[in-house]
């Protein structure tokens, strides 16, 4: 059956010989058993299992238009509002499984690939463009339930507005040669989240380029020769889920991707050496509305989780009667209701686009993508403020298994909870807001769709206000 | 025909002998011709005229369930989502006519009265309650298209949390006697907006009381004996609509209402001398969702107007290319899309309530009522910041009619406008953001539904978040 | 005696034949009696009188280094910390007289002229520069106690970053000719505050220019031939100081200044036609520290006034026990203490500069000039929030003189005040925060030293932080 | 020599048999060698060494009034402005050594003890008060250079405003018996920072109590029988100072302190069983101005460090030309200059208090203590925003020692730095803003002097604003 199980996902990843470096050492053995990847691969595998559970299979998958087999719903090209609704339901269901913490759960890249493939007509008849490669690869990915990492970001020697790379050796990944087999890439890309734990890596130029050697779009297997993933330090402390309930399970690694003379075979090249297309494709394709739609669904689930943790603290230490607490909780509710409303507007006003997709309205999704990066850090701060000094008084499960448990039971009990449950909740709140996992989540959400100024500019330019005269 | 025209409205107001004081003088002669009321009465009259224009009559009115005559749509008890939609359409249409500046356009009080009458069953069988009076009066108001002012706010010698009035003479209006004719009221109420320019005044206790003499709800004609309206200083500068385009047309007066031994006839008493009902009625009735729904429709129209003025400035002085300008415009768009989305959610999730009304969802409306008071002052500030020093360089129409026009034409021209049109726009922006009319609008929107802390508390307490454990 | 009295000031202004236009009419008769100028000229005249009162003369004036006569202290070149301290004392004393509302009280321009003249050495030996004219004119101004308006701002057809004026006819004032008598100026300048009610107008190019015809600095009498002042609409409502206690007394007019072929005599030209000097002079001169020092002294007095009004409201309606009120009052105190501390640091760290002046430290003054524009609008808002609905319930003195006074006395009394005193305080608060006078004050303070982004950039570039490596 | 060296400090700590629990295990062996304490004890030891370095001894110590021996400057009772200045210098010097990260460097508690002892006259003649014990103990501490932890915070079953502990067994530490030897304490206290690594623990009731068994003040050695310290999880990742430059050196542990029937000998009891004194002593003593003065000195050093890291990032990736970067840097400068100015004001206006101490002015110190908790989290966020995605791309020193160093050198180089130095700076920035050490620092600074609402209330109530009438 094409939609895979968790076990199939893990076996496929473990079988590949992907080159991954962690703290100066090349990872050998099964990736799924390496401490740095183990917890998150388990969590991802649980997502795949949900596809085939009888109770959820109906909306987690759909019959492949090609084979009739059940394939992942996030690969579907929606053409009706019902399709769009199923898509939302499916994505929310996956997001709930990680409380929205997996920013790169497979539905994100599946959606991206679907949207790009649906927009292949933009490449039709353009120089150095291979729309058929894109469409065929999308179909293959769908039938085999491939998983992806990707990366948009170039390393930069500086970020000055006037910077042009002038190194002889490539720094940002670029085409250094064309051969019979394909194009050859040398250089690096940054911040491939889940790098090393996916079947494939999809590489796209983000637009705004002026050097044809930076113009390309392709996908290759993670274990392609010359491809190398370098991990940052892991933000997993350990595998104890009482002590670190989130970071032990949802720490998506971020990697630097090195292309050491990597050959991309022609059938995997979607376009190359065409500056114009590179600069237009993402913006004109169905990418934006569908990617933003996936993200908003996930972020709503995440905020619901934050709200639940906040309310948990409020009830545990019985502070719901204070005006300042009510104001903080109201702020969370306002954020949540606002995002939900924006999603409803986007879906209510969805329309068939030029590619035949039932496309959600862009403006409310852009507003959400402008709002969330501001609101998320504030809500995280609210949880810290509600927890106050309790966020620091956090012994571990080991303490509760020792002879000082009697002390803890007496001195850390709460009105509603015994000490161990109370500390469990506060450890969760800490892992959500104050751990390195937490601060990386905040940083990640802040920049998900680029810097705030660009998002604001896009929003303003797309939204036509009629001026008063 | 029951739904009245502007002319009928004006004639009715002018015929009444309402006692109104302005700057130490009792107003004599026709109210509609007094400089303080004249512009706003004209604007209100234009609203009534819209009811009977063939092109809009269909949704501005509906057939009275009692008589079949066309009566005002805002009096309708909606029982379907279509009804709710018509209601929104009608209210937006009226709001557009004043750019949302008339906070007390008749649909507000019509809606309130409809919601209260629909909730009359709450009064059934309760002591000193007359649900029939309420229902009958609602029907009368609908058939005669009565207009209303109202007031919730008591004067207070202080606002300390521990304050109890202990004056021998009433300060806050209260019942001092019951007679054969009705109840007798003495004391004052504050902030009756449009006081003096409506047929009736509806008086309700806001709840939270503990003295039965403060417990009542009734409506009486504005010219009832002993009733007196005292105006604040007018914020209209004059009638020149080039110089003061908004304040010359939409300055709703606020009045102190003095009850000098006013007898309210029994048939106009809805309840009295029942603390429990007084403290429960508003909260349990259909008041909140429907009042908030009216307000949100108006506020959306108002923000659209603010957005248009902002964009007008941006285009006129050609500043749309600056990052900080784009960010400010994006902030306006975000506010606008957010409010629109909240309205869509409230209507999408509308349900039949216990009174048989198709009631919009409360939570998104509460969120809107919490958001708008914060966002409106910020958007007003944005317009000031966009206009910058241009907000101060504002000569008058008289200058353009004098020999210095040549100077103005040369020195105040803009890229897109001649000097006179440019100044017209900046004067509008000034009147919207910096005139006394403008600052009163801001203050008014800030407190429309009470202080922010109470709104936040209500929102939190109504919204059930499931706590994480 | 050189330091003049109020009477001398008024007589001098009234004697001049300055051309001023208000609402399409040329002002004839004595300026000091025109409703638009009358109140503010009285207030300014009171400042001059303070110079010669025996009790304050000692620090309000100092002996002229040239003549030994007592001349205004703000003209003094400070060379010791004691001088600097006297200067602060004198400026605070004047500021108190207008509660800091006169942004252009004479000490501001006196200080500017002193700082420019002290920096005349920068002009020494430079092309088209006349340092002696500047020094002589400073001495003349000091001995005659001249008063000034000035203007930095050019009219702009647009404010686009790419704008270059290409009109054939000048828009921004520029040199169109050099003659035997002097340079001839044509075009306009904006926002000359107090325009028309001063002896002189000082005109300086603000820097950042690239056209030599825009490069100049000079001063001429207000009634110079061809010079014309065009008023904006006045923000004075009337002369009743109960109803409008601030705007009736401190409404400084802003004017457009038209140069209709105005000849500036050579002895009044400080420099011209020298782009380099124009772009360097202000920045390298003693202008910044001394102008910022004057402004900060005034702004501290203004905040003290705002604090007093806020505390007045708090006590009158007895709300000091609420946590949110305490937080608002604390915000005011924080602003006030912060500004006072910045002033102390600037004076404590004052040093002799390259011109021999005892110059206050620049950084804390820049910080103050960056802080005040943000904090002032917030404090104004706090006063509005403390006053709440009381800011709208504001009858007039006329009401208190009529038969409805009994109603007002009963219904508007407060815990600490009778009704008339309570309303007096709230009318003051309204005039400070919600009148057109108030909103213009806010706009004025926001832009006093340019836009926030430029101020931030200057601050950053002057302040050398040692980077961590 | 009384002022000790680092070696003496370590030996004393290691010799004690203090009972400390970490992750369910009792620490055995030398505390200074335990991974959880090792780095911070080294850093603290370096502080002591500075006391005796010839170059700094003069102001780091002063001659004991009793013995003439050099003792720590922070124990000195300042009676002149010069004393106060030396005190500031000394505290800044120590703070620089840890970049202000050691919130409980010994000068904090030394200062507290000095201030309390200086205020001993408040205890004179009061019931159950032993002012002599306090004075003698202060002298002993000074002569022996004792180090301290302390704790104000009670465990609470809940934080509801209406909570009263009703457990039979004590939860919050309280007196359960008086014996010949002293008072016997049972129960717990929270958040003793540096618990276990100091000679003594000082225990004070924070005031606001109403049960005499909670009324006490005393100091006992850390290894007193029945005293137990329970650590939270450590935020030190490891001892590599390239990878974790701050957390490996400045991680002050926070501990729960358990009093398991601890006898406090009478000579160490300062007062007990006197509610009135307990609720008045801290507030009326010299505690506030001197504690706030120490804290502000440290916080200024800390902000200087944050500023340096921010500027380091700006220069390394060459982003100083962007307007938004300049605004962010300006925000840092504003915070820094503001705090420095508040300190100058407090010292400039210092006065002899009722205890004969030269006491810094309270208001600006309170303003600082209200400002810092708001500003510090914002500056930390600014560093995160400046670093952007660079805050996540952080390989380790181990990577630079492996064969992939070539990749890193090429792809992570910056305009100004080689890859290893660049990553070193970004790792520092991460450790300062995103590590668990960093988030604990932020939480700690937020609550240093209690919750913001209480601080605001205190500030308002101490600061007398003259109301306008």
UniProtKB/TrEMBL annotation, chains A, B, C, D:
GO molecular function per UniProt: flavin adenine dinucleotide binding; oxidoreductase activity, acting on paired donors, with incorporation or reduction of molecular oxygen, reduced flavin or flavoprotein as one donor, and incorporation of one atom of oxygen; oxidoreductase activity, acting on the CH-CH group of donors
Domain HpaB/PvcC/4-BUDH N-terminal stretches: 5-270
Binding positions for FAD per the UniProt entry: 156-159, 193
GO biological process per UniProt: phenylacetate catabolic process
Superkingdom of origin: Bacteria
Domain HpaB/PvcC/4-BUDH C-terminal: residue ranges: 279-468
Keywords, alphabetical: FAD, Flavoprotein, Monooxygenase, Oxidoreductase
NCBIfam families: HpaB-1
PANTHER family the UniProt entry points to: 4-HYDROXYPHENYLACETATE 3-MONOOXYGENASE-RELATED
Protein name: 4-hydroxyphenylacetate 3-monooxygenase
Taxon lineage: Bacteria, Bacillati, Bacillota, Bacilli, Bacillales
């Amino acid at each position: 059956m094409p939609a895979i199980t968790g076990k199939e996902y893990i076996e496929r990843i473990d079988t590949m010989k992907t080159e991954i470096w962690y703290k100066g050492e090349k990872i050998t053995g099964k990736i799924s058993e390496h401490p740095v990847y183990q917890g998150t691969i388990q969590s991802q595998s649980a997502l795949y299992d949900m596809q085939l559970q009888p109770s959820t299979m109906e909306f987690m998958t759909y019959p492949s238009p090609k084979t009739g087999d059940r394939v992942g719903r996030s690969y579907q090209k929606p053409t009706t509002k019902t399709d769009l609704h199923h898509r939302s339901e499916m994505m929310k269901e996956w997001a709930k499984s990680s409380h929205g913490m997996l920013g790169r759960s497979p539905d994100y890249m599946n959606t991206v690939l679907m949207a790009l493939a649906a927009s292949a007509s933009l490449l039709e008849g353009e120089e150095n463009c291979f729309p058929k490669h894109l469409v065929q690869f999308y179909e293959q990915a769908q039938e085999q339930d491939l998983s992806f990492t990707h990366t948009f970001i170039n390393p930069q020697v500086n970020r000055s507005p006037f910077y042009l790379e002038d190194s002889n050796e490539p720094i940002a990944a670029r085409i250094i040669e064309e051969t019979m087999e394909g194009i050859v890439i040398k250089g690096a890309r940054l911040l491939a989240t889940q790098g090393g734990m996916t079947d494939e890596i999809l590489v796209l130029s983000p637009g705004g380029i002026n050097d044809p050697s930076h113009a390309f779009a392709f996908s290759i297997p993670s274990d392609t020769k010359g491809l190398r993933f370098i991990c940052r330090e892991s933000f997993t402390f350990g595998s104890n889920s009482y002590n670190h309930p989130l970071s032990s399970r949802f720490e998506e690694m971020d990697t630097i991707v090195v292309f050491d003379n990597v050959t991309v075979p022609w059938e995997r090249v979607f376009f190359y050496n065409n500056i114009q297309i590179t600069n237009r494709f993402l913006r004109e394709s169905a990418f934006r509305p569908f990617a933003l739609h996936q993200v908003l669904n996930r972020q709503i689930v995440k905020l619901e989780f934050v709200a639940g943790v906040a309310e948990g603290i409020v009830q545990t230490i019985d502070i719901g009667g204070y005006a300042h607490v009510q104001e903080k909780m109201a702020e969370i509710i306002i954020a949540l209701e606002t995002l939900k409303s924006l999603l409803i507007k986007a879906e209510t006003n969805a329309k068939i686009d030029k590619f035949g997709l039932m496309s959600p309205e862009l403006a409310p999704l852009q507003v959400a993508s402008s709002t969330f990066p501001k609101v998320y850090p504030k809500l995280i701060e609210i949880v810290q403020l509600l927890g106050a000094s309790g966020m620091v008084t956090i012994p571990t499960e080991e303490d509760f298994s020792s002879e000082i448990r009697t002390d803890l039971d007496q001195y850390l009990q709460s009105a509603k909870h015994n000490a161990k449950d109370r500390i469990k909740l506060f450890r969760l709140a800490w892992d959500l807001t104050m751990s390195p996992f937490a601060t990386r989540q905040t940083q990640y959400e802040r920049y998900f769709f680029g810097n705030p100024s660009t998002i604001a500019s896009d929003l303003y330019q797309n939204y036509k206000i009629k001026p008063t005269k």
